[in-house]
User: Fold this.
Amino acid sequence: MSSNIEIKKTCLWCGREFIARKTSTEYCSHRCSGLAYKERKRQAKLEAYKKEYASQTSEVRAVEEVEFLTPTQCAKLLGVSRRSLYNYLSANSIPCLQLKGKTLIGRNHLDKLFDGRNEYKHKPPMQRSQITEFYTSKEVQEKYGISNSALYEIANREKWPKTQSRGKTLWSKEHIDRYFAQKKPSEDITEWYTAAEIQEKFGMTLSAIYNLVSKEGIPKKKEKGATFYSKVHFDKAKGIEVYDSPKYYTYAEAMEKYGIGGILKVLGTPAEENGSGKAIMVREGVFKGVDAALLMHPMETSVPDDISFACVTMEFAFKGKPAHAAACPWNGANALSGIQLMFHAVDMMRLHFKDYSRVHG
Assistant:
């Protein structure tokens, strides 16, 4: 709805007089409004920069006035990173005082470093080893079973050195061998699937196979243009249980294999949960003459390090009072009700126990 009000105003941008229809109008046209908006944004950026510059200069002034500097302040003062400064401290190039949890550097020590005359030692440039052995593109394709397009894609990504000789592209043998040595699958993998075998066994499309291999990181290899996928890893990715022979030694096997001398003793520990069985065995001299002792708890899985809990046993006795259930039940006391009340109270307390606290019963 248009307004019938006519107000004579002056444009805040161009200064011309105009007729406004609202009291809040400040500009005579859309162009002046846009120019004014850009100018406000420009001024806001300028003010933000001024504040940032002022804070940086104030920090520098504060550092310059401090007698003892922290490594962070010293790094800002010298214009180096904290890592570089700690390297200087480790090399004893800058004197410091190392306290418990805090390192301080005296300002006077820094000034003394620049008082003396220290000669600058020019570091010779690193000599790059000259590449003397090369592969042709055909040799790389035949040796590692990749296509010409794959070769150029990997070379561009890994930045392999190359040169031209008599119209042929020669690739650095060292860089190529190192790259494919890292990509080589483990020698423990002996069984492989082809894509056709996977399609036949699991009914998967090629795109589904490629997605699963990429998602699960299944090892693969290429031979003569064909791609093979690790059978064990693919079966695990599809949820098929694969039996892996345990890669462990018993104590006796390890001692025999590696020529470890000595006598191996296996002792059972009675009263593990209550009674301090191991402490009793120590007091009775069971471990005298033992060089090393390992504690093992039988489980269904192998865990090299676990958390153990101290055990405190408490006994509670609940006593009741007999009474006639029909004639005068109020004269009785029900011991079972007390037990039930205690169990409910402890169960509600579990929510408020700290970590590694357990209550059984």
